[in-house]
Write a structure and sequence with these properties.
By secondary structure, the protein is mostly beta strands. The chain contains six helices and 33 strands. It is globular.
């Protein structure tokens, strides 16, 4: 696994070509299938807590937000998340709805986390990093055994189950799977009930066929969630219907392999409050690797994307935009030990026009086990459709006073210029690495007041109309240390520490950007029937500035969280079953990662304190 044998793990996200972590032109962390299995995490955001530089924030049991190197928020919008190279970033809100994604945790093969700008290869929204969730192919599933996981929770009423299996029919390999998850939510434990319960059903099916020139893969994934979503807008008993349809063709063994992918992502949200959303994303892309010479490997491609949304925030009017892009990146060997990565991308959007994203990275091997890297990259975050087309009145005092939110078609993309140096040393039983970065951010987008209510009777500076504007910039600098090491026979550890100093143009702190974070993990490995893994997470304090309450600032306290999983294996080594118990928040039960901020719609609380959750279950792999 990556903890001890990272260079034996092949990664693709940092370059769109296969290579080792040490050869990557960016800071890369891999979470492998073994780590997922060993952890007690039941969600992908909880898995990501252990990675250096990654910020995870639970708003409540039904919503989590993830960012890299600061700038987290209620709708984290500066991180591109993909599944098998397919973007799951929601263009209309600028976020990822983790609970509503049709993903089975047990089917994930590995998660590749790239810290730093990624727009040269991936375009809009690969601002501070890229996370690529790679799942097992139908062929890999058909060659193995079925997987089954079930668990019951303590501390909150709920249960979870997921299973998948595969097979072959002629030249086709196929797999089918499903999952179910329900929870009364953390809010059920609150004195004043917070609405964050959910029930989720996932169904998926895909097929794969080997053709003379490559591999064809077709997949359909669905998620139906009935849940409460109180992050900003009080959407209780909301029915979320997410559908993903993907077709891809990969020439995986060709000298100059070609890859073509087309997908459609749809999301429909309806609820008794008529806070409805309909979103549809269509994306078609193609890329090719070309070995120009023994010293040069070129990757180039193009992409076309169109998005349409009809939502309560656009006065239920249909709004759309489209974009196209071309990119190229050359991997040039300057010698036996040195490689230069140089790339450029041009994006054109029907709303905000052209954006150019360059990247340069020099990777030098001091020895077979030591690597130095220096990088420069530029990236951008596209304005969301909501920021362009806001047309919504928030009833602060129902029937008396509303705040009008207006979109702005002239708002520019947010930009980042990043400078980074890194060092990594591979060892027989682990590794050590350090990365330092400096980011200059400009054209940040936020809602600002353009008109104010009369005073009296309203308090001074009470906004009556707000619109999306580019309000200024920020700078961020930081240091990330990470290591993996043997502790004793059959026991290994992982430690990382992240420091980030994120300030706006006026020198003030930026939302949910804690200066200090640290993670320590200990886990067993080998053939023992008893296994365990424990994770300690420390997250420093931060602030939240509420734009709906005249920029009132809330403090978010530091917390220490401990998670644990203990399992006992029964059955044969060829067909093992494991009985397990796992727990989250053994330390820090009741801590808040998001403050108790009233909803702008009805004044109810938006967040719930994270509760201790204990799972009992069985699993087979």
């Amino acid at each position: 696994m990556e903890l001890l044998l990272s260079d034996q793990v092949i990664v693709t996200t940092a370059t769109k070509t296969a290579g080792s972590v040490s050869d990557s032109p960016a800071a890369v962390t891999v979470i492998t299938e073994d780590q997922i299995r060993a952890s007690g995490a039941r969600t992908i955001p909880d898995l990501l807590r252990s990675a250096p530089g990654v910020d995870v924030m639970d708003t409540n049991s039904s919503q989590a937000n993830v960012s890299i190197r600061g700038f987290n928020n209620q709708f984290s919008n500066k991180l591109l998340v993909m599944v098998d190279g397919r973007s799951i970033y929601q263009d209309f809100y600028g976020s990822v709805y983790w609970q509503q994604e049709p993903l089975l945790l047990s089917r994930i093969k590995q998660i590749e986390i790239v810290r730093g700008p990624g727009s040269t290869l991936y375009g809009a929204n690969a601002f501070s990093g890229v996370i690529n969730i790679i799942t097992k192919t139908p062929q890999e599933i058909a060659a193995g055994s079925k997987t089954f996981l079930t668990a019951e929770r303590g501390g909150e009423n709920g249960s979870a189950i997921e299973s998948y299996a595969g097979g072959k029919s002629g030249a086709w390999s196929y797999s089918v799977g499903g999952g179910y998850n329900s929870s009364d939510g953390y809010g059920s434990e609150e004195k004043n009930k917070i609405y964050d319960a959910h029930t989720t059903n996932i169904l998926m099916a895909d097929a794969q066929r080997a053709l003379p020139g490559g591999v064809l893969r077709l997949s359909v994934n669905t998620n139906d969630t009935l849940g409460d979503f109180d992050a900003i807008y009080s959407a209780r008993d909301a029915d979320w219907r997410s559908r993903n349809y993907t077709a891809s063709y990969d020439q995986d063994h060709a000298r100059n392999p070609l890859q073509i992918r087309a997908f459609v992502n749809t999301l429909e949200v309806s609820n008794p409050s008529n806070l409805n959303i309909q979103s549809r994303i269509v994306d078609v892309s193609a890329q090719q690797q070309h070995s120009v010479s023994s010293q040069n490997n070129l990757v180039y491609g193009l992409d076309y994307r169109t998005t349409e949304v009809k939502a309560f925030l656009t006065a239920n009017q249909s709004k759309s935009r489209s974009s196209w892009s071309v990119f190229g990146q050359d991997e040039a060997r300057l010698g036996v030990q040195t490689t230069l990565f140089a790339g450029m991308r041009l994006d054109h959007d029907s709303t905000y026009g052209e954006t150019v994203s360059p990247h340069l990275s020099l990777v030098h091997h001091l020895s077979a086990s030591q690597t130095l890297r220096a990088s420069y990259g530029s990236a951008f975050r596209a304005p969301t459709l909501i920021e362009n087309y806001y047309n919504y009145s928030i009833p602060i005092i129902p029937g008396v006073f509303n705040v009008l939110l207006e979109g702005n078609l002239h708002v520019r993309p947010e930009k980042i210029h990043s400078y980074e140096v890194g060092y990594r040393r591979e060892m027989k039983d682990g590794y050590v690495g350090v990365n330092a970065f400096y980011n200059q951010i400009s054209d940040l987008i936020n809602a600002i007041p353009t008109e104010y209510a009369p005073s009296p009777p309203f308090p001074p500076n009470t906004p009556s109309t707000s619109t999306s504007e580019n309000i200024g910039g920020a700078r961020a600098m930081g240091l990330e240390l990470e290591s993996a090491f043997p502790v004793a026979r059959g026991l290994r550890g992982q430690f990382n520490y992240s420091y980030q100093d994120v300030q706006d143009d006026q020198g003030g702190p930026v939302n949910f950007s804690p200066k200090h974070k640290a993670n320590l993990a200990l886990e067993t490995f080998g053939s023992s029937r008893v296994s365990f893994r424990t994770d300690l997470h420390y997250v420093g304090g931060s602030i939240f500035r509420d734009i709906y309450q005249n920029n009132q600032i809330y403090n978010v306290s530091a917390y220490l969280r401990a998670d644990l999983k203990i399992a006992y294996q029964v059955g044969s080594a060829a067909h093992p079953w494991r009985v397990f118990t796992s727990a989250t928040n053994l330390i820090g039960d009741g801590h808040r990662e998001f403050p108790q901020v009233p909803s702008p719609l009805d004044g109810t609380a938006q967040s719930a304190a994270d509760q201790r959750v204990i799972w009992l279950g069985v699993e087979s792999r």
